[in-house]
Amino acid sequence: MNVLFRRLSAAVALVALTSGAAFAQETAPAAPEPAVAADPAAVVATVDGQDVTEGDLALALQGLEQQFANLSPEQRRAAALSALIEIRLLAAKAEEEGLDDGEEFQRQMNFLRERALHSAFIEQQVAASVTDEEVRARYDQEIANTPPANEVRARHIIVDSEEKAQELITELDGGADFEELAKENSTDGAAAQGGDLGYFGQGQMVPEFEQAAFAMEVGAHSSEPIQTQFGWHVLKVEDKRQQQPPAFEQVGPQIRSILLRERYFETVEEIREAAEIDIADAELKATLDEMEAAAQPGAQSESDAEAGAEGAIEAAPSDETTDPAE
């Protein structure tokens, strides 16, 4: 058998035995949609008289798009089939040798069954309960709750000395073109665009640069060189406007994921409260109680989800200080 198929089929075999479903599917790239949906009952092969169906192939391929990214669709199917053949043959041999009767094997099978049921519940009961209307309503709510913010579009010229920056300001005072001076003198990557930095909001630039930009009038250039940790800047403000919120299409998938997590934790909490749970290991119980207490009040998962929703709506800038010269 081809070495590539051996490696791929081994990977499929491993994941087929160990992978969950719903949360992995949330982060994994979506599989390409076939032109015509295959009949899951359609038989593609037989192994010692046992059918291998399109549904079996789909299960083997589930969650493996990244591993198969460099293969064509037909090669992905062939690699999955190769893995399934090996799984069927080795499973049959294991049964012949009675490996399925062992206590440890039964424990593993029970765990895998419970995990599969857990994933099915998330997919069919939790994820399916998050509607398009709820996602849109959450988006509208976050938009309404987000205070308006302003942003500036600016150009700059960055040089190594205060003296050079002052010379450039003198030229600008005399009517020189800012864009041309930026192309000829600026030492950063924006020089080719005449120093254009585009629009930026509060917290996206180093403080000295940002303070000067927001304080200046549209069309004005800086009257004094501005020093930052990156050098000496001459700044020109091109425009000011109210920051535009991201389009629903841009953040909708993130909001759906946040709502799914919230719904999941709500469901788990409700089910746990109705269950009788007794932890016999005192040390383990103490550690668990300590961890759960640390998550109160408001449960860490919920606060994380709220922060995620706000961040998605606000398109929050990075916490890292931005170099205007980049």
Assign the structural class, choosing from mainly alpha, mainly beta, alpha/beta, alpha+beta, or little secondary structure.
alpha+beta
Number of strands: 6
What percent strand?
5-15%
- CA radius of gyration is 29 Å
The span between the termini is 51 Å
Regions with little confidence, pLDDT below 50 for 5+ residues: 1-35, 299-303, 315-322
Number of helices in the DSSP assignment: 12
Strand count, sense and barrel status of the largest sheet are:
4 strands, antiparallel
- Give the spatial strand order of the biggest sheet: 4-3-6-5
Name the average pLDDT: 82
Oligomer: single chain
Helix content: 40-55%
Shape: elongated
Topology order in helix (H) and strand (E) letters: HHEEHHHHEHHEHEEHHH
What is the element layout, followed by pairings?
Blueprint (H helix, E strand, L loop, with lengths): L2 H16 L3 H6 L15 E5 L2 E4 H8 L11 H24 L6 H24 L5 H14 L4 E10 L2 H12 L4 H8 L10 E6 L5 H9 L10 E3 L2 E12 L5 H27 L7 H13 L5 H15 L12
Antiparallel strand pairs: 1-2, 3-4, 3-6, 5-6
